Amino acid sequence: MIIRTFLFIFVIVCNNNYLFSNVNNIDKLPISSKELIKTVFPKVEIKDITVYKRTYKVELNNDIIFHFNRDGELKEINGLEIEPIPYKSIPKKAYITLLNEVKNPRIIYIAKKKDFFHIKTFDKFQLYDIVVKDDGELIKKEKIVEDNLYYEKRKK
Known about the structure:
Radius of gyration: 19 Å
Distance between the termini: 45 Å
């Protein structure tokens, strides 16, 4: 019984290194992840890369956070109001739809789903929740009232 317990603890400790580890080397990321980061933020350095069992979390020096799956496909990007996410992060047709729906949009959140993007953006006065397909078709546009905000600003 003691040996079994010891082996169980040993396996958990060894697997924790696999489930979660910090690296700061961009070469540990899949090629598609590296290319997207360099395209969207060519002059920003990586602050931290966390490798989980099924995902990568990449934090940049400007506090933007990318999440990728193990294959390097984008899952989401978290931005800040003071440092919005560049439009290069979404397909051109989706960006054009966003421009038609929101005047001077500043993107603060992008989640990539199977064939659409879930985007949180704001103009000078209003926060919007927008869902748009890769081909630019608008699925949903909703104004978010301050009392109903369902996103939280990241804590530092």
